[in-house]
Amino acid sequence: MQQALSHCVRTWCDGATGVIDAKRLSGGASQETWSFDIAHPDGERGAILRRAPQGYGAAPGRAAGLNAEADLMRLAFDAGVPSPRVLYVLREADDLGTGFIMDRVAGETIPRKILRDQEFAAARPLLARQVGRVLAGIHDLPMAALPALRSMTAAKEIAEMTRDYRAMNWPRPVFDLALRWLGDHDPGPSAEVTLVHGDFRHGNLIIGADGIRAVLDWELAHLGDPMEDLGWICVNSWRFGGIDKPVGGFGTREDMFAGYEAATTRRVDPDRVMFWEVMGTLRWGLMCCGMMQRFRQGPDHSMERAMIGRRSSETEIDLLRLLAPR
Amino acid sequence: MQDEPTATELVKAVADFLRNDIAPLIAGGHSAFKLRVAINALDLVTREMTLAGDSDAAENARLAQLMGVQGTLPDLNKALAADIASGEISLSSPGVADHLWQTTMEKLAVDQPNYASYQEELRRDTVKASS
């Protein structure tokens, strides 16, 4: 890997002598993240490779694709949305699969540290407003400049989730209740369709003592209702214990809405945001069930995946708290 | 009838061994993470073997009452799920909200008893019971 990366980097980074310290960070079978330093006479430059190895090029149904992700990150960066600078998009001659190389941004992504460590104490009260501002920036990216992305509506999302849930053939009356509620409360297609990040939450945000430094992982980006992103970050599963602070466990909806409306002419629709929070809670619950299925069907027969299946009941209690509060 | 010690006691003993004797020997990294997950899984199994007998029986009785028929837990849950999906049964049907709450609390007691939402609802139950 180090050799292939060195060869690649020398072709586009003037003066680079190679790469050092290449190590794999995380990711599943279809996507890998590598961290490395570009060696250069002017000093080393921290970089990240996000790639799908050869043979894994075909994107699964919901994924935007790595080339689209690179396009989106470039657009976001140019528009002033906190984003790592994309340095290079892989070509076939690089023999590294599909993907791209970006600057490595210093900071933290682990929710428990962000929510508890002293280092982030000053940033925490600012984060909800920043989330609003950053999301407004994402939703204001010009539609004409965007790569090809799938279009989603609430109705489509409900239909997909219903199909996935039925295919599991395991009764969860609370999920039926939520699907029914979503069908009954679908506000209809959004008057305005924008870019939606699709997975804006802890883990995909690099946060420093000064707040949000970078938005990562545009894999689930699509076109749809901008309020979806505001609802998704309020899903209780992303509060990591800070359940009284709906935005990521660090802030209030009101602060997020204020940050959003200060940065764009678009108005927040709190009812739609709440609708998407219910949708997101159910979606994460179904994703937990999906992990269990992959454990059972292989090839990833790991107990971590199996145990995530036993987290779907967390979303059931959260759905009841939303739909049938006591 | 199987002999003693019970399966629950054996699983708990293994979990305690991994927690107290093995975990301190493994310093960080992916193996330490996997060991924590393994201990969590064994603890979950212990909770399930301890709690699920009573909670399954109670759930079965509630479901039989709600649906007006006797049946196995999977069959009754399928019937309830189908009736909720079709709109035949809703949150305003007598006993439904209580049943779903009770069943969900019983799941969390096994799956994730430290989950913050569960802890908060448990406190609500305790306050109600003592007032």
Brief rundown of the structure:
The complex is a heterodimer of chains A (326) and B (131). In chain A, 42% of the residues lie in helices and 15% in strands.
Low-confidence stretches of chain B: none
Helix-strand category of chain B = mainly alpha
Distance between the termini of chain B: 43 Å
Strand content of chain B: under 5%
Number of domains of chain A: 2
Tell me the domain tally of chain B: 1
What is the number of helical segments of chain B per DSSP (H or I, 4+ residues)?
5
Strand order of the largest sheet of chain A: 1-2-3-5-4
Protein chains sharing the most extensive interface = A-B, 30 and 34 residues
| Beta strand count of chain B | 0
- Mean pLDDT level of chain A: 94
**Class by SSE composition of chain A:** alpha+beta
The CATH homologous superfamily of the largest domain in chain A is named Aminoglycoside phosphotransferase (APH), C-terminal lobe
Radius of gyration of chain B: 19 Å
Radius of gyration of chain A: 20 Å
Q: How much helix is in the residues of chain A?
A: 40-55%
- Can you identify the CATH class of the largest domain in chain A? Alpha Beta
Q: How would you describe the shape of chain B?
A: elongated
Give the strand tally of chain A: 9
